[in-house]
Write a structure and sequence with these properties.
- A 4-stranded parallel beta sheet has the order 1-4-3-2.
- Helix 1 crosses helix 2, helix 4 runs parallel beside helix 6 and helix 5 crosses helix 6.
- The protein is built from 6 helices and 4 strands.
- By secondary structure, the chain is of the alpha/beta class.
- It has a single domain, classed as Barnase, Chain D (2-Layer Sandwich).
Length: 142
């Protein structure tokens, strides 16, 4: 866990990253909050399509009831909730979703990257999968 705290305390730039770690979700949560960051678990395990992904996002990011469940609404809602405070999003289950709905993951990664660049808030960690599909091969590893 000290590696995670060191990574966060060194000023990790906003963005989307692949992350190799055996830490449990609860260990990650504790490490992130100990560093003074906000933590969001985005767990899409068992989700197979855009609609399911957007439902998970609504819960994970605590989006308003009126959240429109479309890509533009996700981008707008993330922008609206931005405080500029550092936030780590741990995306579990992304690989399973990618196998079922490649486009949903591609668009989600684009939205997260844009929000990270604009807000300076998000650092999205994709828990490293055993294989690296082409879509994420260019995503930097931390």
């Amino acid at each position: 866990m000290t590696e995670l705290c060191t990574l966060l305390c060194k000023g990790l730039r906003p963005g989307v990253y692949r992350w190799r770690s055996d830490l449990s979700t609860e260990q990650v949560r504790r490490g992130v909050t100990a560093a003074g960051w906000n933590f969001v678990l985005l767990d899409t395990t068992g989700v197979h399509d855009k609609a399911g992904f957007l439902d998970v996002c609504a819960r994970a990011f605590d989006l308003p009831r009126w959240f429109g469940r479309n890509w533009d609404a996700l981008a707008d809602s993330l922008r609206d909730r931005s405080t500029g405070e550092p936030e780590l999003v741990l995306w579990e289950g992304w690989r399973e979703l990618l196998d079922q709905d490649h486009d949903a993951v591609a668009v989600a990664l684009q939205i997260f990257a844009e929000d990270a660049n604009e807000s300076g808030q998000l650092r999205v960690f994709l828990r490293e999968a055993k294989d690296v599909p082409d879509l994420v091969s260019e995503v930097p590893v931390v």
